[in-house]
Design goal:
Order of helices and strands: HHEEEEHEHEEEHEHEHHHHH
Number of helices: 11
Radius of gyration: 30 Å
Strand content: 15-25%
Structural class: alpha+beta
Distance between the termini: 28 Å
């Protein structure tokens, strides 16, 4: 135990008196870990998007999309669960005629809303169509809009009550009834209805009923398509799997370059300290003792690099306008730490495996390459 303590004390003194060199080691590890961590964080953002684009029981539903100039075209029995949303691209003159996606949702909206800074709609606001809205954080930042500010949409002034995540919604969300009041004279509104049915036998009957009601209220309505919930769910999962494969491959390549770079760095470091290792082995230190010290040293440098990655990832993503696709949460931190520890073990094994081939006398006498 005293021998191991002495080796760690020796390591502490080495770090103390070679701070600049260890700072460069940490910086090298930081640069190498940054890209793999970005890939992991980006994958997490995709998983969140999938979460917000699916809902419980989706497989037992179907979706109808249509263009119409008439709101409130669907009236089904109270025993039937359904939700209607509306979409429109609005030009904002005060924002240099920038087009923003406006989405109207009702009180039965099935999809989960993302984390909101501020508050979400109350049931009363959704039912009565109050003049309130949720705004995408990116637009809010671009146009210096804050919670409590008023936004002009046509002849209505809406109060911003919350800011929503960029990765889930790219525009603004307002109550469906509010959208009716704003766009009652518009003829190019896109609608999307989600309807539940108990079994497959009722599904086609329900689809025909919905389409019939749409045509009855507006014979100029254009049915864009009917999609079963099971297909929507499978498409969402397929997208998630594809995205994870692509990001996983990017992360794998980044990790490979990280391992190659850090192996070169640590091999050069081991070459410089080869004589000291030989002396320690000659004085009775075992290969296991040397391995523990190398692992601890590499782990310390790597964890400091991980810490730097965690505190700079969001600011760097924000600087590159990528904060909506970089999600830094506890899962990303855990996965990055696991990756770092695994890398330390591999790097330590590489160095120790080279040391095992060396003769102690040669290590003490010369400083040739390992």
């Amino acid at each position: 135990m005293d021998r191991v303590n002495y080796l760690f004390y020796q390591l502490f003194l080495k770090i103390k008196y070679e701070k600049r060199r260890y700072f460069l080691y940490v910086l090298s590890f930081y640069v190498g870990l940054l890209l793999p961590t970005c890939c992991i964080a980006n994958t997490r953002s995709v998983e969140q998007v999938i979460y917000y684009t699916t809902f419980k029981g989706m497989e037992d539903s179907f979706q109808v999309d249509w263009l119409s100039r008439t709101f409130n075209t669907i009236k089904l029995g109270k025993e039937i669960s359904y939700s209607i949303s509306a979409f429109y691209e609005e030009s904002f003159p005060e924002w240099e005629n920038q087009y923003v996606s406006i989405k109207g949702i009702d009180e039965s909206y099935f999809y989960p809303l993302p984390k909101i800074e501020g508050r979400t709609f109350s049931k009363k606001e959704l039912q009565e169509g109050k003049d309130v809205c949720l705004m995408n954080k990116q637009y809010a930042r671009m146009h210096a809009c804050e919670i409590g500010d008023m936004i002009q949409i046509r002849d209505k002034r809406l109060k911003v009550i919350g800011l929503i995540d960029n990765s889930v919604y790219s525009g603004m969300i307002i109550p469906y009834q509010t959208m009716l009041n704003v766009y009652k004279e518009e003829k190019d509104i896109q609608f999307s209805g989600t309807f539940f049915c108990e079994n497959e036998l009722q599904k086609q009957k329900r689809i025909d009923e919905v389409i019939e009601q749409i045509k009855e209220k507006d014979n100029h309505a254009d049915i864009l398509g009917v999609t079963e919930g099971e297909e929507l769910y499978k498409n969402a999962l397929y997208t998630k799997i594809q995205w994870r494969i692509v990001r996983g491959m990017c992360a794998l390549v980044a990790i490979l370059f990280f391992m190659i770079n850090e192996t070169i760095v640590l091999m050069a470091k081991a070459k410089k300290e080869r004589k000291i290792m030989g002396i320690n082995l000659a004085l009775g230190a075992t290969e296991r003792d040397i391995k523990y010290c190398l692992f601890f040293e590499t782990l310390l440098v790597t964890l400091l690099a991980v810490f730097l990655v965690m505190i700079t990832l969001r600011p760097l993503a924000k600087l590159a306008s990528l904060e909506h696709i970089i999600i830094l949460d506890s899962m990303v931190i855990v996965e990055t730490v696991i990756l770092a520890v695994w890398a330390c073990e591999i790097l330590t094994w590489i160095i120790v495996s080279r040391i095992k081939k060396e003769n102690i006398a040669d290590m003490v006498r010369t400083t040739r390459d390992i």
